[in-house]
Amino acid sequence: MGGFATIxxxxxxxxxxxxxxxNPMTATLEATIRSVADQLLEARRLGxxxxxxxxxxxxxxxxxxxxxxxxxxxxxxxxxxxxVGRKIGxxxxxxxxxxxxxxxxxxxxxNHMDFSAGVIPLKGLIAxxxxxxxxxxxxxxxxxxxxxxxxxxxxxxxxAVSAEIVDSATKWDIDIVDTIADNASSCGFAVGExxxxxxxxxLPERTMRLLCDGEVISRGTGAATLGDPLNALAWLADxxxxxxxxxxAGEIILSGALGPMVSLTAAEYxxxxxGFDPLVLRAVA
Length: 285
Known about the structure:
By secondary structure, the chain is an alpha+beta fold. The protein has helices spanning 13-17, 24-46, 62-78, 93-99, 176-181, 229-242; strands at residues 83-89, 105-110, 119-121, 129-138, 156-166, 186-191, 195-196, 207-212, 215-221, 252-257, 262-263, 267-273, 279-284.
């Protein structure tokens, strides 16, 4: 992994595994985690912002935050949604410093979050923003930990221009706990035309432009994602194995923003990455 920091999931593991209910501290934390999950799920379903949730959980406790995230993802899966992939966030060192962390985070992509048909409904969203990324599609499961980005090249069958729609139940009053608990602030994604991934893809060298009604509003390069989107994939693969849910063949991986995220309003958006067909989306009120 080239020295990239990893998340310590051991703290709070008892909560995630629902053990030691007779321990008052564990039982109290588990009840708090469920309460926070309830608040976030209701905010999302009503499209109504809530106060930051970090004050309810131990400071900087990413394990507790992921436990909140998992509760709500499991609820959606129980309602019939399907997991179709994961997103990687906080790949920018500047954003990591802002939130006081030294590693990325991840969220889960479900089938109802897919706006690849080209229309993004804004109704019900709280404070939406958009960012441009590379999407990777996996050729096979990644179950072996510790593989480098270069070693994972053979696990990727296709790459595409993509956009992630991010939103915040707390209207961007966040630290690392708030964003992880809120599914890494992810609420949707769109993927353009897939093309085979190969050694000539040279993703770090590609330049990106995100346009709104014809005006460039964000720029970046493939190197913005930990130097190479494959490095971001390597971090995510290890984190996924750590929580017992490894990445699977066919899943879509959003590998991290190539440039600054910007507010999403009713308009036409166009993601251009050198060498790829553009992705065109329309956000509608």
